[in-house]
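Hi L.,

As promised, Tetratricopeptide repeat protein:
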Amino acid sequence: MSIKEQYTLYEQISLTYLHEQNYAASVHFFLFCVKLQPEHSNAWYGLGDAICELANEQKSGEIYDLGVSFIKKSLSIDPNNEYPRSILAMMTQSTDVGPQRIQGIPTFNEKNISEIKERFTLKQEALAASFKSCSDDNRIRLAMFLCDVSDHFSFNLLNEAVINDKNLHVKLAIMKRLYVYSAHPPLKETFEYLAEENRWRSYNPYFYLTLKQISYILPQINKTDWATKILEAIDPSQIHQSNGGSFGRNGS
């Protein structure tokens, strides 16, 4: 996957959380955007906008000024970008902020980015809570984006959600894409758990199809083919008989 493609995924994740008004998670993922493309004006604008929203939520003037410094950074990269230009003009005209405060905030210095990342990067528990707080539709969207990112933190989050999420369509959206984590050892435990006591039937037909994909990938990456053993332990002839026609709605 190219840097541009990675950037687009993280941007979509960030914007989804911003739409959900989960500003801490939005900031967390916009930090990946500025890391991937530090010369992308919209990356700094998005980070600044999310930080300002977080500041308003927490009633923190210090965090708000930091957000403004990111927006100024965005405009310094691309003086023709209307997003930072417009929001800075709006802030300048606001009675709550005003021109003196805006003028007095320096453009963000990238030398301080490590400190910012340490301060605003969320722990695994907070990321899981952020995911759970989103609407059903946006959890499906996030599942799609996070599986495409396919890194360690997204695996932990989605591996738990595929079993415990409250919405079946969210579970199925995740199940369809779990093969991207074939190299992660805990995935075996998840499928073994779902294979017990016919739990897998609720995931028809994707439980079977995803296991088939995993069984194809594992030998290619020199991993033990546990997926085939699980397939052999269940009755494949029954896999398409239960609920198979009702899944996949809502674009999941």
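The chain has two domains: 3-120, 138-251.

Thanks again for sending the construct details.

K.
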